[in-house]
Amino acid sequence: MRHDAVTPSLSNKWFNGAWAWDTWKQAVGTALFAPGLAADQIRAMFDHQIPTDSPDRPQDAGMIPDCVFYNDPSTGGGNWNERNSKPPLAAWAVWEVYRHSGDRAFLRELLPKLTAYQGWWYRTRDHLGEGLCEYGATVDPANAAPEDCRQAAAWESGMDNAPRFDTAGVVPNRDARGTLLGWSLTQRSVDRRYVRALLLDPAEFGTSMPFLTVARSSASFDPAGYWRGPAWLDQTYFAIEGLRRHGWTQDARQAVERLLATAEGLGSDGPVRENYDPLTGRGRNSTNFSWAAALLLPLLRL
Description:
This protein is mainly alpha-helical. It has 2 domains: 13-185, Alpha/alpha barrel (Glycosyltransferase); 196-300, no CATH class. It contains 9 helices and 7 strands. A 3-stranded antiparallel sheet has the order 3-5-4. A two-stranded antiparallel sheet has the order 1-2. The chain has a two-stranded antiparallel sheet with strand order 6-7. A hairpin with a 5-residue loop joins β4 and β5 (180-185).
């Protein structure tokens, strides 16, 4: 690591490193009180952006790896970082850092890097060339079989075992000369289609702990299923911010109040958890989770 970074959680041995989309979300919250640290953790990920003259991965020029950490195969690790990227929230994070720091030099520094990253997405993940990218997988020995590619694509979404990927296939993406550039899921990545009625319906997404990651009415709903039902504070943040931006400020405010009243420990000195049971608010998985803590800060300002 060539710049200061923030880990997802020191309470989980697998999280002792820096992940791309964790970093983008953590930076948004950190910018409120330490914009210099927020900027540095963004730099820490872009330090590992694949260069245009890469001898090993020329097709991936501009890509930001999934994560950067010590990953010794002898202790159960593997190539988890270059098989895929993570959702491209970097421009949002950079802009939020600028909003709080006013550092135009930081914008000038990151603009060409962001441009290269965007170019990689449209070059290697837009299968039909219609300006709508899919999650996918890189050309990598760890992505040798279709199931490997499907798994990498699910990881690239950040929503690992979400039921939307259970029956998905993958298709190859090639340049004009037929060179394999990567793989795309046979799905579009339109992730924010929670309309107001569904978001607020207790039988769908409007559970006691807002907002769960799989509709309560779904046959795949499992409140203990990691990305198959639990409420994650980053997804809750995006849903609440969407309500607010569309003018439903009272709905957004009530959702924040319900969150604070239901999520275990948030009304006291309990640790912020990785995710929560959407029906009871009980904390689940890792404690002291960085992106959840970071996005609580802008939520509390609503």
